[in-house]
Automatic annotation (TrEMBL):
The keyword Coiled coil applies. Residues 56-83 form a coiled coil. It comes from the Eukaryota. This is Beta-mannosyltransferase-like protein. The keyword Coiled coil applies. It comes from Cynara cardunculus var. scolymus. Keywords: Coiled coil.
Length: 117
């Protein structure tokens, strides 16, 4: 009888070891799958972050270009404004010259008339 008990106990221990080994292998596989999933998700997030940063850099560069263009337009407008703020007077000059004052400086221009046909 003791031999039968020993055989049953040995069989039980062997089955228990096999079940534990199978459980350990299952846990190892699940851990590997989870690690793979986490690595894939991290890669996806890193790719989206890189794309977002590239888009942000592109937009920042576009903003800088637009700001530079607007600055040039503003400078050109100021130059044009200073030219347009000049005054012209048609004084009764004996030589028929037109006097133009731009930014406090006076200029004399000769007048030309169209030829009569």
């Amino acid at each position: 009888m003791s031999l039968r008990i020993k055989t049953v106990v040995d069989k039980f221990v062997e089955e228990l070891k096999e079940a534990l080994d199978a459980d350990i292998q299952d846990r190892i596989m699940k851990e590997r799958e989870m690690q793979s999933y986490i690595e894939e998700r991290e890669r996806e997030v890193a790719e989206r972050e890189a794309a977002w940063k590239a888009e942000l850099s592109r937009r920042e560069a576009e903003i800088a270009r637009q700001e530079a263009r607007l600055k040039m337009e503003r400078e050109n407008l100021e130059k044009e404004k200073s030219v347009l703020m000049g005054t012209a007077s048609n004084q009764d000059n004996q030589d028929g010259a037109l006097e133009i004052t731009v930014s406090g400086e006076k200029y004399r221009c000769l007048r030309f008339s169209k030829a009569k046909k």
